[in-house]
Amino acid sequence: MKRKHQKKPIEQQKIALERIKVLFKEAKAAFKEYPKLSDKYVDRARKIAMKYKISIPSSLKKQFCKHCYCYLMPAENCTVRLTKQKIVYYCKSCKHYARYPYNTEIKARRARL
Ligand SMILES: [Zn+2]
Q1: Three-state SS for 51?
Q2: Ligand 1 geometric centre to CA of 64 (Å)
Q3: Distance 45 CA to ligand 1 centre (A)
Q4: Angle of helix 10-30 versus helix 35-51 axis, rounded to 10
Q5: How far does residue 15's CA lie from ligand 1's centre (Å)?
Q6: From ligand 1's centre to the CA of 68, what distance in Å?
Q7: Could you give the CA distance from residue 113 to residue 99 in angstroms, rounded to a whole number?
Q8: 106 or 47, which is more confident?
Q9: How many A from CA of 70 to the centre of ligand 1?
């Protein structure tokens, strides 16, 4: 019973992360011809992340809808807007919004000036 909650070895987690990155790359390449296939790649990447208990990098997290898990391609099946210091992704297949703040970027720019 105890083993169930144990983390997977770090070596395996590293390989899993690599696989997730490759799957997102493939999803991007396949989107134009087979949009359903790229949704499948997203699903598989999520399953790998769950199995190896690793979080998908935030840059990749923004590439799929967190409500219906479909792959998002700006201007194809989602719209991207900047409002109130947030990036708003509107998924056209499930008609839900996802908002991500970009305060850290603004703070970094202010610190530089
Ligand atoms: Zn959606």
Answers
A1: helix
A2: 8
A3: 17
A4: 170
A5: 28
A6: 4
A7: 27
A8: 47
A9: 6
* Cα distance between residue 18 and residue 48, in whole Å: 11
Alpha carbon of 5 to those of 1, 15, 52: distances in Å?
A: 8, 20, 11
Mean pLDDT calculated for residue range 59-84: 89
The strand pair at 97-101 and 78-83 is best described as unpaired
Q: How far is the CA of 110 from the centre of ligand 1 (A)?
A: 34
Q: How far is the CA of 105 from the centre of ligand 1 (A)?
A: 26
pLDDT higher than threshold 70 for residue 3 = no
Sequence-separated (6 or more) residues with CB below 8 Å from residue 69: 39, 42, 43, 46
What is the architecture, at CATH level 2, of domain 2-112? Up-down Bundle (1.20)
The domains of the chain are located at 2-112
